[in-house]
Write a structure and sequence with these properties.
The protein has 23 helices and 20 strands. The chain is of the alpha/beta class and 690 residues long. It folds into 3 domains: 37-322, TIM Barrel; 335-447, Orthogonal Bundle (Cyclin A, domain 1), CATH 1.10.472; 570-689, OB fold (Dihydrolipoamide Acetyltransferase, E2P). 47% of the residues are buried. Bound molecules: cobalt (II) ion. Cobalt (II) ion binds at residues 48, 217, 244, 246.
């Protein structure tokens, strides 16, 4: 078998060195001669891989078993940090995000670390002040980050002006990203043209980019567009060109091959168990495809297989349940129509699921391009994907034909103000005007670099968090995520016991749970459970309010090993008609019952849902209910405060976007049922106004 000597691209060498050296049949191993111009590979398994497929839930302890082996492969870089990891780790995994870099560095000594930096958004969802941005990049570099893949969701590179000099002065690699976006099925149209990208790449090179990355977060780039784009970029700039293309639409492996033909320098892949679906192409097929060519990666495929075996056997069983298995198909053809990046897609589906509105998904798809157009045809990538996504959901669920924008998120208001930067085309002026009515910073949008209007935040954060922060890394966790960051620091320093659900599970625990589920599914547990008493309510119990015609039930559901199990169901005296007797409003799970409220008869019929939030009249007043599941950021009013109808009472975070919930009526706040940081289900009674 003689396959050596294939030249990809336009290199004119007729006979490669391989032809002269290799006589023996092809080896899988590293013994084969080095290619002339190997494609460099960045592995994304430890960041984008689990972010795309497993909700960013990968724990450091599950990366360690393969860390040293990954270091031996010969990757150009390993992406280990940034993106959503910082948020997820401190919020859901009770892990210090900074510690992950330091821990992995102890095992991975040769291969550079790469992180995804959302420019002035850092690893959050808004633009932070310059002082926080500088401190964050300094600390990321000091903790061990080598390559800063930097992007701005609007491709507004004024948002790079603060972080880039810090990356450079720390002696690190600044990789500038072009967020790849389309307004039509293929590259072109009047916004995202070849010329647009080439000009942007030149801007990046001028800013000192050490490499330029085409960041195709939704897998939109078609193979021949990839060819044209990479070719044009190679001709326009001197620095290496890198392609990051998600698999979502199924085109990425073809686009990678065409990019190689066009001379791309670096490609992104994942280890097989973390590849495909909304993640990235796998590395192994690429290694095989290029074997013996002038672009041969030089990787030993047996080493890759050994890593995969560990991932499959020892790691993935812990994460498999997080995989969206609602569809058999691993390709989402809809992405070509609605341009939704993978992470956003699963968020949208989850959000709708939790709101019992999954049947509205097609309306969401139809509304999405309209919202995007209204908001200036912005690329869809964190955080703009969330901004457009949640606003779309809000429009579908709360808007009507006359007014689609009945509930505008705080982030859409910020975007309309210019706080994220300049949009590709101007924002719909009517929407802009409506969004900025009464906007705290002013009703006239800004045109300067966004961070110029953001007050310094670091000193304020230090003063607020006081002794709970031991060092600057702690302060930054709080500065970036005030509510969940503070909660995490309380766990970290033993001031509060972390809840069960943030604790890691061993493989044995997982296995025991799965065995139980398997037995239950096979019907083998039925006899036993019939004789058994109901199990004690555990800590993972969540309560749901279920309304069936006139009856109201409280249902407790406990998650055991990833499968929700209904653990109890009790009928509650109803507070909604047709009720035979009046009763107190149902108290949400774990919330103290509002003491001030006395049942009064007869209760008024529930009002039609408010456009902004659900309200129900109870005897002593009107309740403000959560229109969606989320986390309480803050109460803007306290018990005893007088509110007018429409005054903001609660800020509720859902899908990372903040929603200002207005009072459904005029009155006095009688009861406040939650506090900052509490998670609430849909319809939870947030407060009572009487
Ligand atoms: Co990505």
């Amino acid at each position: 078998m003689k396959i050596f000597g294939i030249n990809i691209g336009e290199e004119k060498t007729k006979m490669s060195d391989h032809d002269k050296v290799t006589k023996a049949p092809m080896e899988y191993g590293k013994d084969r001669p080095k290619a002339k111009n190997p494609v460099l590979i960045e592995d994304l398994t430890l960041r984008d891989g689990h972010q795309s497929l497993f909700a960013t839930r990968g724990r450091t302890e599950d990366m360690i078993p393969v860390a040293e082996m990954m270091d031996e492969v010969g990757f150009w870089a390993l992406e280990t940090w940034g993106g959503a990891t910082f948020d997820t780790m401190h919020r859901f995994l009770n892990e210090d995000p900074w510690e992950r870099i330091r821990t992995l560095k102890r095992y991975i000594k040769k291969t550079p670390f790469s992180m995804l930096l959302r420019a002035q958004n850092l690893v959050g969802y808004r633009n932070y002040a310059d002082d926080v941005a500088r401190a964050f990049v300094e600390r990321a570099a000091a903790n061990g980050m080598d390559i800063f893949r930097t992007f701005d969701a609007l491709n507004d590179f004024r948002n790079f002006e603060t972080v880039v000099p810090v990356i450079k002065s720390s002696g690190k690699h600044f990789q500038g990203c072009l967020c790849y976006s389309l307004t039509e099925p293929r590259m072109g149209g009047d916004v995202y043209t070849l010329e647009y990208y080439v000009n942007k790449a030149k801007e990046l090179e001028k800013m000192g980019a050490d490499s330029v990355c085409v960041k195709d977060m939704a897998g939109l780039i078609a193979p021949y567009d990839a060819y044209d784009l990479i070719k044009a970029l190679k001709a326009a700039v001197k620095v290496p060109i890198h392609l990051h293309s998600h698999f979502t639409s199924g085109m990425a492996p073809m686009s990678q091959l065409k990019a190689i033909e066009a001379g791309v320098d670096i490609l992104d892949t994942c280890m097989t168990p973390y590849a495909y679906r909304t993640s990235h192409p796998a590395i192994e097929p690429l290694v095989m495809a290029l074997l013996g060519t002038n672009r041969d990666t030089g990787f030993d495929i047996r080493k890759l297989a050994a890593i995969n075996e560990i991932l499959e056997k020892d790691v993935l069983p812990k994460y498999k349940h997080l995989l969206d298995d609602s569809k058999v198909s691993i390709i989402d053809i809809n992405v070509l129509l609605h341009q939704t990046p993978g992470g956003m897609l699963s968020n949208l589906v989850n959000q709708l699921k939790e709101m019992d509105a999954l049947d509205r998904i097609d309306d969401v798809y139809a509304e999405l391009p309209k919202v995007r157009k209204d908001l200036g045809q912005i690329p869809l990538v964190t955080p703009t994907s969330q901004i457009v996504g949640i606003q779309t959901v809000n429009n579908v669920l709360f808007g009507d034909e006359k007014d689609r924008y009945k509930m505008i998120t705080a982030q859409v208001k910020d975007l309309c103000y210019g706080l994220y930067g300049k949009t590709a085309v101007p924002i719909n002026p009517d929407l802009q005007k409506k969004a900025l009515k009464g906007y705290a910073r002013g009703e006239k949008p800004i045109t300067c670099r966004p961070a110029e209007v953001i007050e310094p935040e670091l000193e304020k954060a230090k003063q607020e968090i006081k002794d709970l922060a031991v060092d600057i890394d702690d302060v930054l966790i709080y500065a970036l995520y005030p509510v969940t960051g503070k909660k995490f620091l309380r766990w970290k320093y033993g001031q509060e016991e972390p809840p069960e659900e943030v604790k890691p599970k061993t493989l044995e625990q997982i296995k025991a749970e799965q065995d139980l589920i398997a037995k239950a599914k096979a019907g083998k547990l039925v006899e036993k459970t019939e004789k058994k008493e109901a199990p004690a309510k555990g800590e993972r119990l969540r309560t749901f309010n279920v309304f069936i015609e006139g009856d109201y039930y409280e249902v407790g559901v406990e998650e055991v090993g990833g499968t929700p199990v209904v653990s109890y169901m009790q009928q509650i005296p109803v507070a909604v008609p047709p009720a035979p007797k009046p009763a107190a409003p149902p108290a949400p799970a774990k919330a103290p019952a509002p003491a001030e409220v006395k049942p009064a008869a007869p209760p008024a019929p529930p009002k039609a849902p408010m456009p902004e939030a659900v309200a129900t009249e109870v005897g002593a007043g009107v309740t403000l209910n959560a229109p969606m599941p989320g986390m309480i950021i803050s109460y803007e009013k306290k018990v005893g405060d007088h509110v007018k109808k429409g005054d903001t009472v609660v800020i509720l975070e859902a899908m990372k976007m903040e929603n200002a919930l207005p009072s459904p009526a005029e009155g006095v706040i009688k009861a406040v049922n939650f506090k900052s940081g509490d998670s609430v289900p849909k319809n939870a009674v947030l407060c009572i106004i009487g």
